Amino acid sequence: MSELNRLTADETKEAQKHPIIVILDDIRSMHNVGSIFRSSDAFAVTSISLCGYTPTPPHRDINKTALGATETVAWEHFGTTVEAINAAKNLGYQVAAIEQTHGSKSLETIKLSADSKIAVVLGNEVTGVCEEAIAASDFYIEIPQWGAKHSLNVSVTAGVVLWELAKQFAFKQT
Description:
By secondary structure, this protein is an alpha/beta fold. It has 6 helices and 7 strands; from the N terminus they run αβαβαβαβββαβα.
């Protein structure tokens, strides 16, 4: 790790984070949860909110894809996604549901200011973001797609969205 200039797990926990919270709305797959932890570590998000029946660490199936990221990314469990959304709003975060819905904005058009704080809601693998969470969100983001399928795996969606948001914060800091 030192040859790659990577932080240790302890250094990563203490490092500055981007003001991004990931809210997982009833994600079924432990592998998806683990992958989202890994992407969240890579893009230095503040925390993950695991909601409803979304599985929580520690679990070997989450760890299989997280590769240690459950130890470096702060997380909390909420009974409902709306509870997590309200908690993020109470901390001054704007909440964006990642969903193809009426009024959604294309991801590449989202421009964050240096003082922005954003929470993104990622939905269930089959049903997407629940209606209550959509109603509680401040706005909606979708990823532009040009193929026949207008759907991505939730962990892929997390990687794409977190990269786009985190690079805006990272480039403002340099």
